[in-house]
Fold this protein.
Amino acid sequence: MKTKYKIPNYILASKNTRFLNFIIDILIMRLTIWILIITANLIFSEYKLGIISRVESFDKMEAYLFWSITSFFYYIITETFLSRSLAKYFTKTIVVMEDGSKPKPIDILARSALRLIPFEYFTFLRGRKPGWHDEYSKTFVVKKDKLENSKKEFLELQNF
């Protein structure tokens, strides 16, 4: 009887690693947006769009919506095509399903939508429980090398 592979707890990324991913991703998003805005201002300077001054003049609600939409698309694009955000490259982590497979676009959409809930990032402070965007999308962030080793060991035991 063959059993299915299931993510063991010891390969999950630590809360510290997850926090570092969050900080790095925020920095990457902000840097990317500012580069895009400055580039757009330079390219379309004759139209005097004033994109930089407009973004800088956002009130709190506009800023929240702007950065929420930015992060939504950032995570959808990076995690759909790469199975990880850019920060996860630095921390050598990856997003997977419970069986270690790559998430489908609908799973990434669910993860990204759940991140839009205000203060969702505080759900990681609930002890050993995962954050809502992991828990409800049934995804896991794991150390990539540990995942590969764990799956290899699992296959070796299955073939034994």
About this structure: The beta strands are 93-97, 139-143. The chain has a mean pLDDT of 91. The chain has one domain: 9-159.
